[in-house]
């Protein structure tokens, strides 16, 4: 007797299972180990291939890939900023192929926009990063402004804003503005997040006529000998562990029309103008292998006239005497915000920094950074911009 056996071979296309948290996006600090695990099924056992930026990742050097049976794991020890990006897992067998990735979308809007400072010609805004990056790194931010009485929103910045702070310049004195901010990734711009308050372009009232009495539950602002320039919108906010409350009061100051006469007796009535006090609290905000970001706080005195801006200087440690060898970093334009990034640094050199404030009279004494610093990837640290 002859027996005949029929052998049937079934082919099953591959599938991939990835943790939903990885699909939504993974955020780690520089220096941490990144582990991207995935399960795969199929008959015969699929072959796995990891991709990033259109190139196959090999299991060597900075990357380690373990593909055994029904799993494939990509490990990146001691991650750096250059590892940021999108990673794809492609599996295939004779029955077909499958790719695991996360869909890219526009980012969510920035969070908590706030007004930090303002005058008759500028407004300093700040915000925090969006909670959703849309699956792609945030490339920057854009700021838009709307004048009172207009329905049009105008974009203020030409280039993407790289940090969560921006000074809007060129405001028209007496004009009221609204501001909003968008986050940007490679897919596009987020929905805008609008500042909760309007901004009146006028100088902030800070002089000896102003007094704040804070006696719970009463808080009052007292302005003695009010003048026409004290008009405007005054805002108060109260905050505790349960939340935040805000109120706004509009003040109009009426006066009798007529000529204004100022009489000064020589040698008795005079104003002393001088260079400003130096900036304070100079710190390193962030660092990479080729750049260092600095931040500082405003001087306690402007010398009687408004500040023009700041000058950031650098020198290599040990190459010059105490007050020699300094080179200016911000050459192209006047620096009007309290932060600056110095780039194109050599990673094996130590650098010294100092910052000076400037007004129409002259330059302040410098504020020196305590100790020399070397450009490097900062591991496991977070920083905030000083306004």
TrEMBL record:
Family matches, as InterPro entries: FN3_dom, FN3_sf, Ig-like_dom, Ig-like_dom_sf, Ig-like_fold, Ig_I-set, Ig_sub
Record domain Fibronectin type-III: where: 109-204, 278-377
Keyword Repeat on entry: yes
Superkingdom field: Eukaryota
Pfam families: fn3, I-set
Keyword Signal appears in the UniProt entry: yes
Sequence ranges assigned to domain Ig-like in this UniProt record: 14-105
Annotated signal peptide: 1-17
Keywords associated with the record: Immunoglobulin domain, Repeat, Signal
Full protein name: Titin
Organism: Gadus morhua (Atlantic cod)
């Amino acid at each position: 007797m002859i027996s005949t056996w029929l052998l049937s071979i079934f082919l099953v296309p591959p599938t991939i299972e990835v943790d939903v948290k990885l699909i939504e996006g993974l955020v780690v600090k520089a220096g941490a180990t990144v582990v991207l695990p995935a399960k795969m099924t199929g008959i015969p056992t699929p072959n796995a291939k990891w991709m990033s930026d259109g190139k196959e990742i090999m299991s060597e050097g900075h990357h380690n890939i373990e593909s055994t049976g029904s799993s494939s794991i990509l490990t990146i020890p001691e991650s750096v900023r250059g590892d940021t990006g999108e990673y794809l897992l492609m599996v295939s067998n004779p029955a077909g192929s499958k790719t695991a990735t996360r869909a890219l979308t526009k980012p969510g809007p920035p969070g908590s926009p706030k007004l930090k400072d303002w005058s008759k010609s500028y407004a300093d805004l700040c915000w925090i990063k969006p909670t959703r990056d849309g699956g792609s790194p945030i490339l920057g931010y854009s700021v838009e402004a709307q004048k009172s009485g207009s329905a049009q929103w105008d974009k203020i910045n030409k280039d993407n804003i790289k940090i969560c702070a921006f000074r809007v310049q060129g405001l028209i004195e007496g004009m009221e503005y609204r501001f909003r901010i968008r986050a940007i990734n490679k897919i596009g711009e987020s929905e805008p997040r609008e500042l909760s308050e309007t901004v009146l372009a006028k100088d902030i009232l800070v002089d000896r006529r102003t007094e704040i009495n804070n006696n719970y539950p009463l808080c009052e602002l007292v302005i003695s000998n009010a003048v026409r320039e004290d008009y405007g919108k005054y805002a108060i906010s109260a905050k505790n562990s349960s939340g935040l409350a805000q109120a706004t009061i509009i003040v109009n100051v009426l006066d009798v029309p007529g000529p204004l006469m100022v009489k000064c007796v020589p040698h008795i009535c005079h104003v002393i103008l001088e260079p400003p006090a130096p900036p304070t609290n100079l710190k390193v905000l962030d660092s990479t292998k080729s750049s260092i970001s600095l931040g500082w706080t405003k001087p306690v005195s402007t010398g009687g006239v408004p500040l023009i801006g700041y000058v950031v200087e650098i020198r290599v440690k040990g190459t010059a005497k105490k007050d020699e060898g300094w080179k200016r970093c911000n050459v192209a334009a006047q620096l009007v915000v309290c932060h600056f990034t110095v780039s194109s640094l050599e990673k094996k050199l130590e650098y010294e920094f100092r910052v000076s404030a400037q007004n129409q009279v002259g330059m302040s004494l410098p504020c020196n950074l305590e100790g020399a610093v070397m450009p490097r990837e900062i591991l496991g640290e977070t920083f905030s911009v000083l306004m």
